[in-house]
Amino acid sequence: MAQAISAHKRSQEPLRGRPVLAGMPPKKLPPPLRKTADKLALYAGCYAVAMAVLGAVGAATHSFEKKAMHSLYGGLGCFVLMSVCSAVIRFGVERKVVFAGVMSSLVFELIFLIVFLIQGFRSFRSPDKLGRAALFALNAAVTGVALGLGAAPVVPQLAPVLKRKAQGVMMQMWAKKNMKAKK
Predict the structure, then answer these.
(1) More confident site: 156 or 103
(2) pTM of the prediction?
């Protein structure tokens, strides 16, 4: 009996300065964050479908010729990648797994946005590739919206952590500078 009481008290103690939410294990995702994670999984899944459709549209504009099939393959590749991220976010149970899924989907979307912008500018300069420029602009717009929707719930939660880390780095730099000045 004493062991059970002791284990119960340990489970109620804060972990690294954070209280345990309603007796829930600290590694599990609490219900409010689960709701946010489900929304993020939906955003990633919708983005995956949108990229697959836009890839198919890109290939269809050239009658699915061999030279234009890379658009379809890229769209399907993006679909698979973002579907995996969406599944990790949706079905992940531990905080770290869900966080890894969210951050990887945001990083992939950022990379896609950069690629679409670069390709759009390159094809915009060539008059015979203006159709591709429009498709890249549409891809970049869809990716930008998806990135904004995905980052909106994440940034406020990361801001205090990043602020504390930045303050710690600044204090270390200041301390080193003062030590050098005193010598």
Answers:
(1) 103
(2) 0.71
Mean pLDDT computed over 7-26: 50
Q: Tell me what pLDDT residue 88 has.
A: 94
**Structural domain contains residue 104:** yes
What are the tokens at 24? 């829930």
Q: What total number of domains does the chain contain?
A: 1
| DSSP sequence for 118-137 | HHHHHHHHSGGGHHHHHHHH
- Residue 162: which domain range? 30-177
Instruction: Please check whether residue 128 lies inside any domain of the structure.
Output: yes
Q: Is residue 10 part of a domain?
A: no
Residue 22 lies in a domain: no
Tell me the residue type at 14: P
Return the structure tokens found at 92. Answer: 């992940």
Q: Which residues contact 54 (CB under 8 A, 6 or more apart)?
A: 75, 135, 138, 139, 142
